[in-house]
């Protein structure tokens, strides 16, 4: 029991008995980063209803996304073919130059 009392008396030095000034850290963070909570607050429940979509709307968006993806893939393939063709022509031209020098 005495050891507990001794430990408590040692810990008394570490306890802050000063005034309980709690700073509002979120206010400082808002000032630093320019964050405004009110800007992201939901105005009303009506806005949530606008975010709902039907299955048909989702399928339409999926079709549009698929088309865009296919077009991007085709464009990428075209660019790759052009690069390969340019590289092949460059190799042929350098081979011709090397053949002429001999």
UniProtKB/TrEMBL annotation:
Residues 1-23 have a biased composition (Acidic residues). InterPro entries: Chromatin_SPT2. Residues 1-29, 83-102 are annotated as: Disordered. Keywords: Coiled coil. It comes from the Eukaryota. The keyword Translocase does not apply. Pfam families: SPT2. PANTHER family: PROTEIN SPT2 HOMOLOG, YEAST SPT2-RELATED. Belongs to the SPT2 family. This is Protein SPT2 homolog. It comes from Daphnia magna.
């Amino acid at each position: 029991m005495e050891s507990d009392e001794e430990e408590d008396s040692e810990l008394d030095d570490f306890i802050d008995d000063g005034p309980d000034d709690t700073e509002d850290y979120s206010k400082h963070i808002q000032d630093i980063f320019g964050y405004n909570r009110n800007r992201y607050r939901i105005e009303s429940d009506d806005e949530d209803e606008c975010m709902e979509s039907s299955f048909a709307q989702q399928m339409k968006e999926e079709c549009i996304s698929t088309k865009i993806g296919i077009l991007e893939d085709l464009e990428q393939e075209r660019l790759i073919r052009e690069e390969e063709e340019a590289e092949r022509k460059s190799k042929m031209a350098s081979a011709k130059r090397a053949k002429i020098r001999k």
